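Dig into what follows:
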Amino acid sequence: MDALWEGLKEAVRLIAEGDAELRDIALRTIFVSGIATLLAMVAGVPVGYWLARGRFRGRMVLLGAVNTGMGMPPVVMGLIVWLMLVRSGPFGDLDLIYTKRAMVIAQFLIATPLVVGFTAAAVQSLPRDLPDLLAVLGAGRLRSLLLLAREAQLGLLAAIMAGFGAVVSEVGASMTVGGNLQGNTRVLTTAIVTETSRGNNDRAIALGIILLAMAFLVNLLLTMVQQRRVR
């Protein structure tokens, strides 16, 4: 308890003093994980809808692959991205390895299966004949999609929370493809590992408390939107 209390005091001190390094790390964390989550929503929601409503050969295999991806260890995904982006890899000429863009790519691949899975489950919970009913009532394709998204809003918000929570808390992929470079690719999770390895337990605990607070505030905001929809 003493260590936790000291960590809490250190976190308050760092925030109150406006520690520049901490601010940069926190903002970098929000930027990388936020962009990755946004891209995962843009790509994952249409795919989830397609898997939920489509009837085609191989659909069950794809759903199984998505469910497998939902449990993929982040460090394995980081390794795959590293092999693709490293100098000797197929995309080595792009010079993406050990950059924030590489971290966004890795986190995007981690979050996307979660978004696809949650979206598919949310859409499948809707009445099967709802799209046909909307078409009969005169709703166009875009209007129908917007109405269906509104009806599945609770599930889509859960998809955002799951995707963001997965990427903002992962460390393996970010460390592998980002390199944990100070002032460039170091985020809160990798900073915690670094400070712990140096024996700076108070600062590591402070960083952990700030990470938890950040994740809580984002999810609290989304939960408020979700529960307002329920009411």
Observations:
- The mean pLDDT is 85.
